[in-house]
Amino acid sequence: MLIDGTYFTRNLCLILYRDNTIKYTQLYRFSDGEWYEELKEDLQNLLSMGLHIESITCDGHHALLKAIRKTDPSIVTQRCLVHIQRMCRIWLTMRPQSQAGSELRIIIGKLHRIINQNQKEYWIVELIKWHEKHLEYLNEKSYNSLTGRYWYKHKMVRRCFTVIKRALPNMFHYLENPAIPKSTNGLESFFGHLKNHITVHRGLSKLHRKSFIKWYLYFKNQ
Which of 27, 156, 163, 206 could cross-link to 91 by cystine, CB 3.0-4.6 Å? Predict the structure, then answer.
């Protein structure tokens, strides 16, 4: 299953629960954000209807990860590799100013091309070697005399590594089960088509926009 949310206005968020195998929307919700209690309720409703969820591919939103963990910890959670790449590239920028940032950007660029266990192991080893090489750089701190506090000087590079480190246990389930999608690209594409259709009907009120989306999802499921 693919789960993701997209915004049409600041306070109108559509959260979609879509079966990636049969390309069918099992459930959707309108909200003003991605909230833990709502996500947990949706997952519980899906399970109570008898749906067997083998895996969930998502972007790693903390509320959704918590909802999955509290609802059914046995569900395999696959982190979207494209989302990890995209965020790290934003934080590192197109041309990182440090050698550590440049090397990490190259490593991240290889992530979506991993198709077997050997490539996975080589990639992890490369990441570990990078971390060992630049550990001192990553731990450099500055001192603010006004606040009396220290902070890490290279926080964007540290942030990238931290995100990868935390996601690592759930980044490669797709290698063990080819039916598990390694990204939410299928849902991103679906959202893109939906928004293109809505754009044609600019000026819809919030109520009519919701109705349009409901009918769109209904006909797509047919």
Answer: 156
Render pLDDT for 114-126 as a digit per residue (tens, 0 to 9). Answer: 999 999 999 999 9
| Cβ-based neighbour number of residue 43 at 10 Å | 24
How far is CA 168 from each of CA 34, 68, 163, 184, rounded to the nearest angstrom? 23, 17, 8, 17
117-120: long-range pairs with CB below 8 Å, 24+:
117/175, 120/172, 120/175
pTM recorded for the entire structure: 0.90
Q: Is there a contact between 56 and 77 (Cβ–Cβ < 8 Å)? A: yes
Residue with tokens 């979609």: 16
Cα distance between residue 80 and residue 140, in whole Å: 30
Domain residue ranges in the chain: 2-80+183-221, 81-169
